[in-house]
Design brief:
229 residues; alpha/beta; L,D-transpeptidase catalytic domain-like; 8-stranded mixed β-sheet; 6 helices; globular
């Protein structure tokens, strides 16, 4: 069976504006997390997306692999919802070249990674006819409802536990609770494409995205403005 039927991941980041081109004057703009408590990396990335306009006025998603959590934002950076996620079994930020064409039986545990990067995403259907959010169609990476066809994997239980330590189980795709997909993810991307940012776990986020800290950017610009010329 082709690997796309199971949404197994292989993807690479798409080009994005450089930080210097994206910077704007004035106080930093920030993502609105409301009552959510994101990790420092997730907050810094979301703030950079809003401040720089890297999402191109489209809805966007931040996937925090280390903490196994997904945050969905509207086009101006207001949180629409957050939920735990199941991710690739193996730790790593790259996919093995050609893995998207392999049979399931040929995918070793060490190759089951969720790649990090910036991806243009859109709703569509996989080879089983199920609607998913395609993160990278050619690479067969998607964000979708949690798969429960193998009871031994205990995926619902993994999503419900308070720790991210047991959330690494998939072949690379991003599994989220059914209700979250249907009430948050699908409505956010209906009629539009968006951007999915998957945070790295082996490299700095700035290296992957070319991002910057919005407070550092504002402080630098304020200093420049106050310096006599």
């Amino acid at each position: 069976m082709a690997i796309k039927a199971f949404c197994i991941g292989i993807a690479f980041a798409l080009p994005f504006p450089s930080a210097s081109a994206a910077e704007v004057a004035g106080s930093p703009r920030r993502a609105e997390f409301a009552l959510e408590q994101p990790s420092r990396d997730a907050r810094q990335l979301a703030d950079w997306v809003v401040d720089s306009g890297d999402n191109l006025a489209k809805p966007f998603v931040v996937v925090d692999k280390v903490n196994a959590k997904v945050f969905v934002f509207d086009a101006v950076g207001r949180i629409r919802g957050a939920a735990p996620a199941l991710l690739g079994l193996a730790r790593g930020d790259h996919s093995v070249p050609g893995i998207g064409e392999r049979e399931l039986s040929a995918i070793g545990p060490e190759d089951r990674t969720t790649p990090a990067g910036r991806f243009v995403a859109a709703l569509g259907r996989n080879m089983r006819g199920e609607d998913v959010l395609w993160v990278d169609y050619d690479g067969a990476v998607s964000l979708h409802r949690v798969i429960t066809s193998n009871p031994k994997e205990r995926r619902l239980h993994r999503l419900a536990t308070p720790t991210p330590k047991d959330n690494r189980i998939s072949y690379g795709c991003i599994n989220v609770p059914v209700a979250f997909y249907e009430t948050v993810v699908r409505p956010a991307f209906t009629g539009t494409e968006g951007i999915v940012y998957v945070l790295p776990e082996t490299r700095p986020a700035r290296e992957v995205f070319g991002s910057y800290d919005v407070d550092e950017r504002a402080a630098r610009q304020n200093l420049e403005a106050a310096t006599p010329r």
